[in-house]
Amino acid sequence: MIHSIFFINNSGDIFLEKHYKRVIPKSICDYFFEEVTKNSSPENVPPIIQTPNHILISIYRAQMHFVAVCKSEVPPLFVIEFLHRLADIIKDYFDEVSETSIKDNVVIVYELLDEVLDNGFPLATESNILKELIRPPNLLRSLADTMTGRNSTVSATLPTGQLSNIPWRRSGVKYANNEAYFDIVEELDAIVDKFGGAVCAEVHGSIDCLIKLSGVPDLTLSFVNSRLIEDASLHPCVRHRRFEVERLLSFVPPDGGFRLMAYRASCHGNLPVPLDLRHTISFKQASGNSGHLELTVIPRPPSGRQLEDLVLTVPMPRAVSGASLVASAGKYSYDTASRTLVWTVGRLDSQKGAGSPTLCGTLVMQTGAPVPDCRPSILVSFSITGWTISGLKVNRLDLHGEKYKPFKGVKYVTKAGKLEFRT
Amino acid sequence: SSASKMSNGGFQPYNSPMDQLGLPPPDHASSTGSQDGDRGTRSSAADPAGSAFFSGDFKKHDDLRAMLESSKDSQKLEAMRRIIAMVAKGKDCSDLFPSVVKNVVSKNSEVKKLVYVYLTRYAEEQQDLALLSIATFQRALKDPNQLIRASALRVLTSIRVPVILPIQTLALQDAVSDMSAYVRKTAALAIPKIYSLDPETKPQLMGVIEKLLADKTTLVVGVAIQAFEEICPNRIDLIHKNYRKLCELLADVQDWGQVVIINMLTRYVRTQFLDPAQQNQKQERQNPLDPDHELLLRTVRPLFQSQNAAVVMAVAQLYYHCAPPGYMNIVIRHLVRLLRASPEVQSCVLTSLSALSASSPHLLSGHLKCFYIHSTDSSSVKLVKLDILTNLATDSNFPVLLRELQAYVSSPDSELASAAVRAIGRCASQLPDTTDTCLNNLVSLLAKKDESVVAEAIVVIKKLLQVQTSDHSHMIVDLARLVDGIAIPRARASILWLIGEYCDRIPKIAPDVLRKFAKSFLEEEDQVKLQIVNLAAKLCVCNPKQARLLAQYVLNLAKYDQNYDIRDRSRFLRPLVLPDPSVAEPTLLAGKRVKKILLAPKPAPEVQSRFAEKSPFQLGSLSHLLNLRLPGYQALPDWPAEQPDSSVRAVAAPAPAPSSMAAYSRGGVDRISGSSDESEDEDEDEEDDEEDEEEDEDEEEEEEEDDDEEEDSSEEENT
Fold it and tell me: pLDDT of A225-270, one tens digit each?
């Protein structure tokens, strides 16, 4: 299915390659570079590129392109999802996906690449299994290895998970402190038109877990208002039938961090966008070469909560060469290369009467350029902790199959997803 | 050279295992000789350049060789790590092959693993030397450790050296009946490797596949089907006996295997059952589905909730191609859900949805808002979304949609803005009732400052006016006035064409426009020049009094133009519109006939979605996405007209679920999973739980406190 994989960074270096069948020369990537130069930004490179004899399927993640070369029919999502899984594995091993983390651990990455695919077909992609086959780097362990003279990251025996009925879980897990953390993160996707009405709005949530429990724990997570969950996707460990019938999550978790569930929250009626925005942006002023900008944020957080990490981003047209503004709260910056105005407001404390922060001033227009008549969108990001916009709440978590009492924690966060205000 | 000496030195002890293989001894002398020759030419080629770099490189490899020869594992490991790092970067390390291959016997598992990795990469280039490692693998194939057996089989079959084909096939046949499912899985993966090495092995491999298809472990079935798909995708008959088992195991197979199995079963269903939509027509009410057909749809359904987008897409296309029409809502809902996934997944899913929106827009009409464009979408996603939105346009949703499209027209992304203008045009031609609204809208866009938007609007207006029967002369007048201010050639050409085509409706303005353009003819772009020539010819026929001299002037200019198309056009039109009275027979091409030729009613161009014609390809396949039949694509068969024999799927005894699965079945159909199993096994626990009930309540409060603590900590982080 997948013939070869290339890792390419933003400056166009192929810094890693792995071939699963006959070697395909690097020059195949020239077709890819052609597309890169054709497109203004790396995000715009089409994920599927057709060349005379091959198909290049790529993803862009963490400033890198992961390119898979295929020769024949293959489900495109299969390859894309695989490449993402690969990036996830790398992230799981080295805490981050980046060119440096890959280059620093190139041998382990290469061993992983050898293990995840055989002849181009996925072999082992569960990170719990992989970690038993190829041990991730670890300072403590490398110290121990030097002391004992052992020096190998490769296991000599088959991970028991491979053959068990719960292949996602490592065997023989032991912790001194048993802990289970659940992060419920909801993201608000919305477009607000210039009159302040929501053109469309959706809430998508996910439950990410960090489970450090000994043995083979069997967990049951139930919700206060499970009817809010629509269109869920579940980790393979979740018992599907019980979710369908009882709307609760019953599962033997993998060891470590993983995404338990992602869902769309049903929201009848209007969603409360937790802030309002007043804006005037004009690129023309009577006095000549300057435009005018005024932004006012009116926070509407739920009672007792605060808007945090509030950032407003305005991609400006090319003709705006600079900005001289005054921010009543936070800081602003104007990046002349990408022509982007970023206003970092930070945290808005509603109790202390921070009021409505404003950003106001003039936009410097390029001399000679025609006055643009497009309307830029304002991208907003924020987070509110301790609150879910849909109102979803965990009822209880029960543990079966093990005798100890774990430490349990749930955290709720609401964030802006793709939230934009049209002007 | 020293390098060749070393490699020869390395050979000696390994000649004996070679003989054990019973292989024809490779011609060592000649092969190493040629290799030395290669190396010689390479180094001599480097020498004249006087490059210190090459010799330095050789030296570096020399110390790697020394490390590989060393007796310490740590040295060997370090050397192998450095070599693999070079291989990963794509540097050529084939000259180290002789030194590396010796370490295939290493006791250190990582050294061994790295040597394996190196071997599979270079064995094809160094076939004779690669043979030296074979005996080691043959021994490892008998090892009591299943991981060692499996990896030996993996590497052995990955060595693309035709000479060892008999050994590979033999090893494969043994591995298929191995005790360990993991080894059997490796065997299944090895089948396509052997096939690609020599397609003649197909009959033998078929036997192996048949054996593996009967395997009942979830680990094996996915890869077995993959091998089936690559070797003999048309032998549907091999699936019959395994069909029900596949359905039942599906939920527990690894996600990658699920995709392959579902795609294969889609073809199976299309050959073995009757079309559920067709049955509706023949008889009054719908026939019940074949129980086996229903079984598949039922067992597959939970997989809609997979976290792997490829699985969701596979299930969606199965339902799309094989389920009764009533199920399409579920399909769409889950495909729309995938739009939240990574941008690449989004882009692929949108292409599929775009095809659906063209063939059956009613299915998607409820999800219109999901396709609204965010300014952060990638440019290809924006265009596909726009295509879908236009496909979904109806008279009832048009006002909302138009407002949305207008917002895109003022987007800073000029590509999107132009595409939005085109989309308005497409709405107008799809929905005749809205044409006037659209035209007015487009005309109002002409006041915009963004040239590309104005140009696009003009081109679209041109197309729309062609379709319109009613008189829009005022609009053409407006356009004629605008032409001076527009620099984009495509737009100028469109206006000129319009004026020429409808010159009888604007008799006063048309000659004036021609006058202006005759003046600027030399400075115009080719496509504008062509339209000036056309305009001149048409005017000359309709209004010879005012235009004849102008036309003559323009045609003369065009006659000596640099572009041959323009010269040709001038030569072609001149005798028609300005007949030479001395030569031509005036009766043949009298004025009226010429007018009929030049101003014949022209069919309006059709603006269509890319997927206007129903794609013959399987939804979600790469061929479907590229609209091109790729090698290896298995066409979706048509439904059979008669019900094929359904008894072929009957299995003597109902396949018992493998014991290992009973304890943990997620999507099992008939076996009730989870709770009931536990209630038997874990009675004690349940009692404990009841006792714990109260404590749990307390714990909840604790949990709440935990919450607050966590919040506090995160707040601290933020500040």
Answer: 888 898 899 999 999 889 999 999 999 999 888 999 999 987 766 6
Asked, for residue A153, whether it belongs to a domain, the answer is no
* pLDDT (average), residues B201-212: 92
3-state class of B636 per DSSP?
coil
Domain interval for residue A301 = 275-385
Please list every residue in chain A whose beta carbon sits closer than 8 Å to the beta carbon of residue B719: 347
pLDDT-based confidence at B456, cuts 50/70/90? confident
Total domains in chain A come to 3
Query: Is the same domain home to A132 and A7?
Result: yes
Q: What 8-state DSSP symbol labels residue B308?
A: -
ipTM of the complex: 0.92
pTM: 0.83
In a domain, A151, yes or no: no
A54 and A112 in a common domain: yes
| Whole-Å CA distances, A388 to A171, A188, A220, A224, A411 | 35, 10, 21, 13, 10
Residues A190 and A320 in one domain: no
**B463-498, pLDDT tens digit by residue?**
888 777 666 778 888 888 888 878 888 888 888 988
- Kindly state whether residues A92 and A134 are assigned to the same domain: yes
Among the candidates A83, A118, A141, a domain finishes at A141
Share of chain B above pLDDT 70, in %: 77
A191, β-bridge pairs = A200, A420
Q: Which amino acid is residue B384, in one-letter code?
A: V
Tell me the C-alpha distance between A413 and A385, whole Å: 4
Q: What is the pLDDT of residues B208-253, one digit of tens each?
A: 999 999 998 888 999 999 999 999 999 989 999 999 999 999 988 9
Q: How many C-alpha atoms does B678 have within 13 Å on its Cβ side?
A: 22
The CATH number of whichever domain residue A363 belongs to comes to 2.60.40.1170
Chain B interface disruption, residue of A233, A234, A385, A418, most B CBs within 10 A: A233
* Residues A295 and A245 placed together within one structural domain of the fold: no
Band the pLDDT of B189: cuts 50, 70, 90. Answer: very high
How far apart CA A46 and CA B350 sit, in angstroms, is 13
CB pairs under 8 A between A and B: 313
d(CA A251, CA B285): 42
Q: Quote the Cα angle for A93-A98-A101, to 5°.
A: 55
A chain contacts of residue B312, beta-carbon cutoff 8 Å: 233
User: Are B402 and B437 within 8 A, CB to CB?
Assistant: yes
Contact A153 B110 (CB under 8 A): yes
